[in-house]
Here is the input.
Amino acid sequence: MEDYSRLLEAAIKARHNSYAPYSHFRVGAALLTKSGEIITGCNIENASYPAGICAERTALVKAVSEGKREFEAIAVAGSLEQFDEAGVLKDELTAPAFPCGICRQMLREFVDPESFLVLTAAEGGKVLKYTLAQLLPESFGPENLA
Ligand SMILES: [Zn+2]
Here is the structure.
């Protein structure tokens, strides 16, 4: 798949399910399997703050728990929440949001960091694209324990 617009749209849509009453920073993620399937996730915060989970890991644990382990790319859409007059979450993003360190490491377990792509939706419809190796250089992975 060369055009990731479908993946980015899925991330933006998944952001609507975000549960972020504390940070108000809503994130959606969409993980693309090598067979072309899209699994989405959103951040889910908790009154006990460390119990919350990021959108990227929500998508990853959903996928792995369903038996999917081969991935091509992930799209991330995150931004502080803004609502229109009707109270609907706006899809406009104010800045790119990148996966946190824990999410980068969890993705690293299941992908080739040199080819796996991380796309992040930015303001004005821009999209930034990196390989996981660029975001997590000199990483530690399963082969280190083989
Ligand atoms: Zn994270």
User: Anything to note?
Assistant: The two ends are 31 Å apart (CA to CA). The helical segments are 5-14, 55-65, 101-108, 132-135. The pocket of zinc ion is lined by residues 54, 56-57, 99-100, 102-103 (CB under 6 Å). Strands lie at 25-33, 38-42, 71-80, 117-121, 127-131.
